[in-house]
Amino acid sequence: MTGTTDRDAKTRARLVEHWEASERGDIDTEHAIYAADAILDYPQSGERFRSRSSIQAQRGGHPAERHFTVLRILGGGDLWVSECVITYDGVPTYSVSVMEFGDGLVTHETQYFADPFQAPSSRAALAEPIPGRAH
Questions:
Q1: Counting C-beta atoms within 10 Å of the first and last residue's C-beta, which end of the chain has fewer, N or C?
Q2: Per-residue pLDDT reduced to its tens digit, 15-26
Q3: Domain 2-116: which CATH class?
């Protein structure tokens, strides 16, 4: 059990490092988590990027000012999920990143994006605000 716990702690630390590097704009540290032959999928646009260098190149050319706020990281073993808010030029977008690991590196990531929306008034009596998430 200790081996799994140690491995999970190391993976969690690498994910935190990845997202912190993303926020700082440190592209080398940000992409060190990926295997050389990693795959990144964006289902909404239908794009697949093959290789750490392709993933890094497409992110490096992004014209927007970006900021990353990690809401939570969940996972264990070879499957980890990060829930984040990525702000592009001041506009927040919710993101879920599903990362599959092999030999300590990301081999496949699928990243989903969703824009915030105003809740319909018809649900107001049934819902409460999520703490810390203003709309």
A1: N
A2: 999 999 999 999
A3: alpha beta
